[in-house]
Structures are given as C-alpha cells and as structure tokens.
UniProtKB/TrEMBL annotation:
Lineage: Eukaryota, Fungi, Dikarya, Ascomycota, Pezizomycotina
Protein name: phosphoadenylyl-sulfate reductase (thioredoxin)
Gene3D superfamilies per the UniProt record, alphabetical: HUPs
Gene Ontology annotations for the cellular component aspect, listed alphabetically: cytoplasm
Chain ranges of the Phosphoadenosine phosphosulphate reductase domain: 79-260
Pathway entry: Sulfur metabolism; hydrogen sulfide biosynthesis; sulfite from sulfate: step 3/3
Listed GO biological process terms: cysteine biosynthetic process; glutathione biosynthetic process; methionine biosynthetic process; sulfate assimilation, phosphoadenylyl sulfate reduction by phosphoadenylyl-sulfate reductase (thioredoxin)
InterPro entries: PAPS/APS_Rdtase, PAPS_reduct_dom, PAPS_reductase_CysH, Rossmann-like_a/b/a_fold
EC number: 1.8.4.8
Length: 304
C-alpha cells in the first residue's frame, strides 16, 4: 500500500457549452449505461497533496473524535489502530467499537499491539479484558522477530540491553515489529494515541500527517484532547483501563522504563525518567535506525 504526496495542480480552465440532452456522445442522454464495475482486487492508492492535508486538518480541528473516526473509516483504506492500550488508545478503540455497531457489516479497524515482552503484568491482564469486552475488535500481536520471551531476548542481545543499547532495543522490540505489521497487514493508514497535551515533541502534532519514510498516513484523532477529557470519557463509558493508573501512573510502557508520575509533572514524565529520551522509536524517523537495521540484516543474511 503506497501513499502518494502530490503537488497541488493548477486549476484547469473551463468553457461553457450548451449540451444537447439527446446527444448520445454528450453522456447526458437517457439510456442504458455500458459501465459495469469489476471487483477491486487491490485497495486504492492514497493520494494527498500537502494543501489537501492542511485543509483536512483545519476542518477536523473543531470536530469531535467520534466524527473524525467516522470520516477516517471512509476516507482511508486499510486503516488500522496501533496501540499499547494507554488511555487514549482505549478511548479511540471504544469509539471505533461503537461506530462498528452502527454498521456491523462494515470493515473493522483492527488493532496492532507490539508485545515487547517487557510489558507489565497489568498490561497483559488489560489485553485479556479488552478481548472479552470488545469481541468485535480484532487484535494483531507482533513480537520481536523470532522471540517468545524476555529471557530469550537477553540471551541473544545481552542482559539488560534495554539500558545498555537503547536504540537497538527500540529497533528490535518496536521499530522492526511495527514495520513488519505494516507490511504483512498492508497498512495504508494508522490511528495513534498521541495528544498535544502530552508535551515534548507531541505539543504541536496535527490530526493527519504523513510519515514519508514509512509511506504511511498517521492519524491522531484525539490530538486536541487533554488527559482530563480522555480520563472522563473512560469513566463515563466504563472502558476497561490499566490498573496501574490507580497507582500513580499516567503513561504505561515497559516495566523497566516506566515509573509513577509525581504531583504537577507531565503525564509522560514517568517514561524514561532522568533521560532525554521522549519516544520509544515508532514515532522517531525511520532513518535514525538505518545503521542498526543494516547490522541486523547482515547478521541474519545467509552465508554464500
């Protein structure tokens, strides 16, 4: 699935010409059409110009996330949601489930969950509760390539390599599995849980953006919502959430790099505490990991 960014084309000039309704060649005459649609074997390519994206973002800025999601379900083929089951992702999932019930025969927006093998027990418990509560929401789980446990990962790459080789860790458990998910599922557009109120690099994110390196349309449907708004939605709609949020956590990632948030701190202050790092890899430029990708490929390449 490819995304094409086009330059805005110049508007063509038109001349007004009287059309004879009985003229067969005009296309306006009555009669039987010879058009017969053939079954589509591939999803259409998404073609968006920069000015079109800007226009869409302007229109969506004041829209409720439910309306944004309704639009995106129609607008984008092969739409998926990538989530680690944080509050924003859960709210998005609940909205999508409600929209799905409005038209049960429509295509579902499946979930992509990257199992790093280092999630909290509470996170895995939440996944089970989500499956039970939302049977109409398929979940695709992607793990580090060829790995089934954290012990296996550390036997291969070294004990606590998540601290000693952070970029390599991010590539192995997040960047590569997500790209594999995009490729295997033929993802054209993906919903994310990023919001501006989370601060750092997320402070000015648009609702729709293009990841040109990954050739993916990224959509942040709750970009304009605050933590309080998301939390209120979760409570009002009785959406299951991670038990750690009742213990002072606001953003939950891997157990080795997540701590509770202090009074007055940003909601993501508990992620990578004391480090300059603010993202886990999937929202960084893909080119940041190109050297690591090359090294990994050379290790797995067959010897000729």
């Amino acid at each position: 699935m490819s995304v094409i960014m086009e330059q805005a084309a110049a508007q063509p000039s038109y001349t007004h010409e009287k059309i004879d309704p009985n003229d067969i060649e005009s296309g306006y005459a009555s009669g039987q059409s010879d058009y017969s649609p053939s079954p589509r074997t591939e999803k259409p390519v998404i073609s968006l110009s920069k000015s079109h994206i800007e226009y869409l973002n302007e229109q969506m800025e004041s829209m409720h996330p439910m309306d944004i999601l309704r639009f995106c379900r129609i607008m984008f083929p092969n739409l998926y949601q990538s989530t680690a089951f944080g509050l924003t992702g859960l709210a998005t999932m609940d909205m999508l489930s409600k929209i799905q019930k409005e038209n049960p025969e429509s295509r579902t927006v499946d979930l992509i969950f990257l199992d790093t093998l280092y999630h909290f027990k509470e996170t895995y418990d939440l996944v089970d509760r989500v499956r039970e509560r939302y049977p109409n929401v398929p979940i695709h789980i992607f793990k580090p390539d060829g790995m089934e446990s954290a012990e296996q990962l550390e036997e291969t790459y070294g004990e606590k390599f998540y601290h000693n080789a952070g970029d390599m860790y991010d590539f192995i458990v997040k960047v590569e599995p997500l790209q594999r998910a995009y490729d295997e599922l033929k993802v054209a557009a993906v919903l994310n849980g990023r919001r501006r109120s989370q601060g750092a690099a997320r402070g000015s994110i648009p609702i729709i953006e293009i990841d040109e390196e990954r050739n993916i349309v990224k959509i942040n449907p709750l970009a304009a919502w605050s933590f309080a708004q998301v939390n209120q939605y979760i409570k009002e709609n009785n959406v299951p959430y991670n038990a750690l949020l009742d213990q002072g956590y606001k953003s939950v990632g891997d157990w080795h790099s997540t701590v509770p948030v202090g009074e007055g701190e940003d909601e993501r202050a508990g992620r990578w505490k004391g480090q300059s790092k603010t993202e886990c890899g999937i929202h960084n430029k893909k080119s940041k990991y190109s050297e690591i990708a090359t090294q990994m490929e050379s290790k797995t390449a067959p010897v000729s």
